[in-house]
Write a structure and sequence with these properties.
It contains four helices and four strands; from the N terminus they run E-H-H-H-E-E-E-H. By secondary structure, the chain is of the alpha+beta class.
């Protein structure tokens, strides 16, 4: 089983999102944390399951992401030979490359539809 390490930036990400869901519903916050736990257990057994998309585009070997179940977040991690380092938790609407590249986190622009003149 692969060892899991938690990066320094993941803790504030998790706390921020868990606090948000706690404000909405305590049950929702528990479901969110359970979803994160499920993702971590999956990574322990199948470390290469995540997509290397952002690793390729940023030129960072071993960088992968795994979507969380039932929540719009990506768990960003780096796969090493005998360990995984969990790096960030990023909302799917964010510009993930900007967040990981250290630039100001941007939100992807929504496509605007023309107004109905009627």
């Amino acid at each position: 089983m692969t060892r899991i390490y938690v990066g320094a930036k993941l803790r504030p990400d998790l706390e921020r999102v868990a606090d948000y869901y706690e404000e909405l519903s305590g049950t929702l916050a528990l479901q969110f944390m359970a979803s994160i736990g499920d993702a971590v257990r999956l990574l322990q057994h199948y470390p290469a399951i995540g997509s290397p998309r952002y690793g390729h585009s940023l030129g960072v070997g071993g960088l992968r992401f795994l979507p969380t179940r039932n929540f719009p977040y990506l768990l960003i991690y780096r796969e090493h030979l005998e360990r995984i380092v969990l790096l960030r938790l990023v909302h799917m609407a964010r510009d993930v490359e900007s967040v990981l590249d250290g630039r100001r986190p941007a939100i992807r622009k929504a496509v605007r539809r023309p107004r109905n003149p009627l």
